[in-house]
User: Fold these one by one.
Assistant:
Number 1:
Amino acid sequence: MKKLFWIWALVSVLLIAFAGTSMAGKTALEEVYSAKTIVVSTDANYAPQSFLNDKGKLEGFDISVAKEVAKRLGVKVKFITPDWDLITAGKWGKRWDISIGSMTPTAERKHALLFTLPYYSSPAQFAIHKDNSSVKTLADLAGKRIGIATETTNERYLRKDLSIEDVKIVYQNWEPGKLITYPTDANHIEDLSLGDGLRLDAIFTSRQTLAEAIRAGCGKGCPLKMLGEPTYYEPLSFALDKSRADSQTLVDKLNEVIKSMYDDGTLVKLSEKFYGTNLIPTL
């Protein structure tokens, strides 16, 4: 009996070890298929890319793209909304599989993240309060207080520390007086809306975010106006955790999905639906 017990104990240990090795050997793509769900991180306060509608459910361009990606993978989609700086830092610990949140694949972020092909592009835009009459050109923003979302490419641009592959960055020849950072773009839009020069003199975000804020009224009126032309256009991609083993398998599959959505016109239709224009780059 004692010998039989030890045999069964040894067999059990070997089976557990084999199962663990089998799980550890799965690629990121295989883990998504095994879970039958892809967990997507995004922003719940970033209209029209992603936002909570009147029913408390996520809606927007990025949300629709994520749902279509899951559909084409044949899995369900689950959304979570961690802080942006946690997403860009990498080392997600498999808490989510992918970020579909309008992220630019900068040289700095590539130290921690992997990126897919771009799925759309975004123009960067300044805005001022509509009551302002002294700021007429971008150069007039020299020495002004400018609101910016933290850890974004727009912040890097104003700090003159932005690097995007295949994108020529031309910086302004003036310096802001002070950059005031916020958790999200919605926060600095709200502060500028409070009054001209009250908390901010200007803000810097994506043109489509400003357009949506002005259209939707920022909750209670949105007395803002865009200033000048976009300073640069940035490609936007899905992001994955570089520290996760065999993540390239998932990147490759997602690139196939992006290409299929480009080829059949799905991305263009979604861009026109949420932005009123075609922001989809040629692949």
Note: Residues 1-5, 19-23 have pLDDT under 50 and may be disordered.
Number 2:
Amino acid sequence: MNKEAKILVVDDEGYARQYFNSILTDEGYRVTLAKSGKEAVNLWSKNSFDLIIMDIRMPDISGVEVLKNIRETDKDTMVIMISAYGDMDSVIETMRLGANDFFPKPFSSIEKIKIDIQNCLERRKLIRENYQLRQQVKGSKDLGKIVYKSKAMAHVMDLASRASELDSPVLIEGETGTGKELVARYIHEMSSRKNLPFFAVNCGSLSENLLEPTLFGHEKGAFTGAIKSTKGYFEASMGGTVFLDEISETSPSFQVKLLRVIQESEIRRVGSNKTTRVDFRLISATNKDLASLVKKEVFRKDLFYRMNVIKISVPPLRERPEDISILLNYFMDCACKRLGLKPKTFSKEAIAVLKTMPWDGNVREVQNMVERIVALSPGDFIGIDFLPPEYQSLSEKVSSLESSLRYVTAKDIFEHAYLKKLLSYARYDLEKASSVSGLELSTLYRKKNRYLN
């Protein structure tokens, strides 16, 4: 039995929460309690639970609605519903929606409840093991694009793998250059749509007059230069994936049209009154905080909720320095192979220096820097001297700052400044300086010889 299992208990009645809390903590499970459906949804969206035990009837959001919300994106978490006798219609409804079991009130024997919980957790364990086996089989395909070593990126790729199993919209957040499009392509390649088209559009690089016909298509004569009717990406994808990068840069009018596409699964080409059914998987990306843009009413709230079903946040490179060395070597190998050059390698000193860089441009900056080195460096061994000048100077500044932050260095700087000020005040009369400072005369002699001679 998995005693490390995380269980969420949701019930508006305190006695029920305490009942399950007592049973479950005695068994060694990690228990979280919620007293409303709204609180349950919030906890589930931020945490991973193995089992949720939830009352069907609650005053704010019912257990049925919470279950619907969960099952839209999460098929694996076990859910046991709590119901009163005589409420079998609701029980049947929850089982149809994907509940795994139910406990009637008043509760039966504690031993039976423990066995039912154990059985649910065993099923959860089997689902996980099957999932891991599928991922091992899929992982044998060398996608050759995303390399990492950090736990932070391992978490990102785990979320991407899980997202590929579903068909819900995905929102990928992250700074410029972190590899959001690569994550989107990974989701597509791992999904059931992998043999169908993948279209990527940078919404920030196209005006609305170009973005709309690119995605929706246009009819002949719809605008100047429209010499023939053309399918847009939504229509041409034919069951594939459409990736919209920099979605935050779109206009309010475009957001209205995109929302309709997501809701109705149909489009109307520019210059046409006819609607066409479309089938595609939407993945969006942004380097901005969409939630804050929604609060500022810059981005539509209803569209944000439609797009943000599965959210993946890609961390900046500065938060995962363990990935830097593997990225340096990977891009070096790729560049040398592409240019037909002998393999080049970074020295340990060069890698150590590059690990101290802030990498504001993230992975893209690493790739660009490596390609510069490959093109301009004559040798096969890349030491610090072969790094671009701006990286060498930045490294010196970082090293200087780190050195000044060492306690011994800071202490020396303080004592030197203090001694000069003290002796200037005492007009270099050491006895007076000793009296003013409280330092022994012998100590002052020693420090004067060390700092001022």
Note: The longest helix spans residues 110-139.
Number 3:
Amino acid sequence: MHGADTLLQLVALVTVLGWASGLRASLVVFALGASALAGWISLPAPLAWLGSPLVVGITSLLAFIGFLADKIPGVDSLSDFVAAPLRVVTGALLAAAMAGGSHDLGATLALSSGGLLAAAAALTKLAARAAINTSPEPFSNIGASLAEEIAVLGSIWLALSHPLLWCIALAALLLAMGWLLRVSLRHVRTLLSRLVRVFSGRAEPPPAPASPPPAAPVPPAPAHSRIADITDVRVVGGDASTDSRP
């Protein structure tokens, strides 16, 4: 059982480092180093250098710069685009180092898992922020940035304290990310098509005509009266005013 718990803890740490690095790599590195420097966690040998005061100071500055840039509309998308490859590499390397940093199968799987999760998180963040930036007010950017920072720190704590719960939460997060990525890409694609039409001088396509209302039912014609046939009698060859009675 102890071996199973250790393996579950390792899987949780590998996946959380990859996923969280895709959102904010500098914050992840700072959180790991600061926690190790404070004695809250014990990092494996390949990551022990993150707990040095110099590295913690540098990563704290980088995390603070990212904290500010991530809340400015436009700047957040630009910084995400530039930092996305670095976040993917950081997530892969942190995951591999957490697995021991060797060249065996376990470290290779950790490297691949961390890189894929970081890429998925970075791509989803890029698409979602591009969609959010179409809003004229900055509060949505600030709210999304704060939510990401809470998610990064909370996920690391959850993986360290309750690895099984984190693995369940990760499965739910991946489903939510798939839905969010599809919605965001659809929104961005619609916006880009409008911009292309505006700058190319093409007119907006006319709205689809509304379907006409259904025609009112025609009332049935009244039944022909047989009494009218009987009373409408004319005398052929005689005076219509002459009384034909004897």
Note: The chain has one domain: 2-200.
